[in-house]
Design brief:
The chain is α/β, with parallel strands linked by helices and about 475 residues long. It has three domains: about 270 residues, Rossmann fold; about 90 residues, Cysteine-tRNA ligase, C-terminal anti-codon recognition domain (Four Helix Bundle (Hemerythrin (Met), subunit A), Up-down Bundle), CATH 1.20.120; about 45 residues. It has 15 helices and 14 strands. Helix 6 packs across helix 7 and helix 11 runs parallel beside helix 13. The longest helix is centred in the last third of the chain and has 23 residues. The chain is elongated, with a radius of gyration of 27 Å. The protein binds adenosine monophosphate and zinc ion (ZN). Adenosine monophosphate (AMP) binds next to helix 1 and strand 9.
């Protein structure tokens, strides 16, 4: 079945046609490791995870690269401000590479507990300086570069299709309100190499044919994606904020260097917003990491489920209430799956039709809300054989990543006090003293347990 998705480059939903039959190369812009990756960042990686899982589900071989930005990302996406890594290292009084490792490790832990499949490689910018210098040399040879007092810049006016991805109106940019852009020839020109400032001792700097300094942020993604996926590859992803500057510049410098079309499909994830509608960002504070949420008793799988409930292209308004509601839905699924695993009755085999419905949903621009609807329909279809159902749900989970295989009754011990309360409640129930029995139910619930009344007696579950 054909996979369709929305390509930012053409602003259209398109059929996916790989460059090489049966094989897909994907590059995802990864974390800038100067601070923890918050739940907004993680939404972006859940999106690229789903994309990859859907391609695998369709039988493609996938090579996935996620980079690690450990140098060169300035506090503004343009070429002003400080290097985020250097600034954070100074503030924390740490070595920049130690700091980068700390935040990268924290990120990996969060990605793992969110059940994100690890990429084939996590290339780091600082380990690919040679490749980045080579790329600038190529651009220099083709006369796309010029020098200012603070670095080597890409001349965007020389690249014919500059701004195509973001549908930038270059004429308007040129004639519109003049914004100071220093020695740059055009507002949209960007740094390929920045010289270390004589007033500042940098921790991370390298020799280059142009002087001591460090690479521009956009350059790393072009150099590393082409190194691992080739000069042309299939899919590039990132958050929507990357469209006007970062990805626009990646396209310009890559295509200028190779003379080939760089990437066929550009896919962008929408933001996770605070409940007041503001983008969750590292600089504005007031945000969570997955590990922080876990410490407060929220489960990572509930966050994953919350993300699946909204299409990746639409903003997701985050609140703890929304996370709790997603958690309740997830726990309901888990309960149903656990019960199904114990069920014995026979039923029809409806695998084929549900599989088709699921595939149709996920192949239609990764429509996860619809895929979840199919999951719920399967769960609630009493005519469908439980054994076959479980098999199909496990298959769906190759895409959803909700952990269906591991869903089982959690072992827990019941404190004596709770056991006694339950016994007492049973007594009142037998005596039909419903009010008293209800009081005891409440007391048991306050102690973190839920009572389920079955035909052969009451069963306790952990809340
Ligand atoms: P950074 O570490 O800032 O380079 O960001 C890593 C990834 O997270 C990028 O793909 C960003 O576009 C994405 N991102 C940043 N903030 C958000 C947000 N609030 N919601 C979704 N994605 C985000
Ligand atoms: Zn990037």
């Amino acid at each position: 079945m054909v996979i369709k998705f929305y390509n930012t480059l053409t602003r259209k939903k398109e059929d996916f046609k790989p460059i090489k039959k049966g094989y897909v190369g994907i590059y995802t812009c990864g974390p800038t490791v100067y601070w923890y990756q918050h739940i907004g960042n993680m939404r972006s990686y859940i999106f690229s995870d789903i994309l990859k899982r859907v391609l695998l589900f369709n039988g493609f071989k996938v090579k996935h690269i996620i980079n690690v930005t450990d140098v060169g990302h300035l506090t503004s996406d343009a070429d002003e401000g400080e290097d985020k890594l250097e600034k954070a290292a100074r503030k924390e009084g740490k070595n920049a590479s130690v700091l980068a490792k700390h935040y990268f490790d924290a990120f990996i832990k969060d990605a793992e507990i969110l059940n994100i499949i690890m990429p084939d490689k996590w290339p780091k910018a600082t380990e690919h300086i040679k490749e980045q210098i080579e790329l600038i040399k190529k651009l220099e040879k083709k006369d796309y570069t010029y020098k200012t007092s603070d670095g080597i810049y890409f001349d965007s006016s020389k690249f014919k299709n500059y701004g195509e991805l973001a549908k930038l109106n270059i004429k308007e940019l040129k004639t519109g309100k003049r914004v100071a852009f220093g020695e740059k020839k055009n507002k949209t020109d960007f740094a390929l190499w920045k010289f270390s400032s004589p007033d500042e001792k940098r921790q991370q700097e390298w020799k280059s044919p142009w002087g001591i300094g460090f690479p521009g942020w956009h350059l790393e993604c072009s150099a590393m994606s082409m190194k691992y996926l080739g000069e042309r590859f299939d899919i590039h992803t990132g958050g929507q904020d990357h469209i006007p500057v970062h990805h626009t510049n990646e396209i310009a410098q890559s295509e200028a260097a190779t003379g080939k079309k760089f990437v066929n499909y550009w896919l962008h994830g929408a933001f996770l917003l605070n409940s007041d509608g503001k983008k969750v960002s590292k600089s504005t504070g007031g945000l969570y990491t997955i590990s922080e949420l876990e410490l407060q008793g929220y489960k990572p799988e509930h966050f994953r489920y919350l993300c699946l409930q909204t299409h990746y292209g639409k903003p997701l308004h985050f609140s703890l209430d929304a996370l709790e509601a997603a958690g309740n839905a997830y726990e309901k699924i888990k309960r149903k799956v656990i019960e199904l695993k114990a069920e014995e009755h026979n039923g029809n085999d409806l695998t084929k039709e549900y599989h088709e419905r699921f595939l149709k949903a996920v192949n239609d621009d990764f429509n996860m809300p619809q895929a979840l609807e199919v999951l719920w329909s399967v769960l609630d279809d009493f005519d469908f054989s439980p054994k076959k159902k479980i098999k199909l749900l496990e298959k769906f989970d190759e895409v959803l990543g909700l952990g269906v295989k591991d869903m089982k009754e959690e072992k827990f011990s019941i404190p004596k006090e709770v056991k006694d309360l339950l016994k007492e409640r049973e007594k009142y129930r037998k005596e039909k003293q419903w009010e008293k029995a209800d009081e005891l139910r409440k007391m048991i619930e306050e102690r973190g347990f839920i009572i389920e009344d079955k035909s052969d007696g009451a069963v306790l579950r952990k809340n």
